[in-house]
Amino acid sequence: MGDVMYLTTVIFGWIGVFIFLMLIFTYQRMARNNEYAFLHLVMAIMYAMWFPLPLVLHQLLDSDILLVGTIFGLVFLIMLVISMTFQTGHIVFLLKHNDDSIPDRHGDYMMSTLSNPFESLAGVFKSIWAIFLAIVFWQNNEIVMAGLMMLFGLFIFYYLFIALDASLVKRVPLFSKFKPNMFLVNIETLLFFAFLVGYLTLR
């Protein structure tokens, strides 16, 4: 793997983490100004900054088994970029046509279509990627990273139950107990990528 590609991935990775932190600290202000469209656009750019991570980790760890996880990791990032971009367009359209011609119910329907279970399924894919990373880190005797990735992998049940609850007409009591929590999801995602970028930085 070339040094330029490795360095570029680390730089882009930290840019993504920095963008995430900036969004956390400026969220309240943007919410007061109703800048939700801009927020989602920046999030799309943030996830795009992490596109090289699955590929570089696969090359660095040099494991055939990780190829499967790499595919899930790439699909996760692509899905999130698509979701954030579509939501940006949807929010902008609603704001620019803020009249009675677009019922609130229609707006809620479109936002639901663009979020769950789409984003929850993406979370499932991220958890699968994390599990494969945990296996490879364990094989390489990198116990700390293996443990961390396995913890993130356990979120597969959380995302899966939310996706199932959102897709079932007859709700299952067990699934309905798991509610989408944006604070939890955002902190989990931030830590996941911060650990991966930190790992690449210290290699």
Layout of helices and strands:
Elements: H1 3-32, H2 36-49, H3 52-61, H4 66-96, H5 104-114, H6 118-139, H7 143-153, H8 155-167, H9 173-176, H10 182-202
Helix pairs in contact: 1-2, 1-10, 2-4, 3-4, 4-5, 4-6, 6-7, 6-8, 7-10
Whole-angstrom Rg: 18 Å
Put simply, the count of helices is 10
Overall geometry = globular
Distance between the first and last residues' Cα: 13 Å
**What is the chain-wise order of helices and strands?**
HHHHHHHHHH
Helical residues, percent: over 70%
As residue ranges, the low-confidence spans are none
Average pLDDT number: 89
Please give the domain count: 1
Which structural class matches the secondary elements?
Answer: mainly alpha
Keywords:
203 residues, mainly alpha, 82% helix, 10 helices
Describe the structure.
By secondary structure, the protein is an all-alpha fold. It has one domain. It contains ten helices and no strands. Helix 1 (3-32) packs antiparallel against helix 10 (182-202), helix 4 runs antiparallel to helix 5 and helix 4 runs antiparallel to helix 6. The mean pLDDT is 89.
At a glance:
Helix content is 82%, strand content 0%. It is mainly alpha-helical.
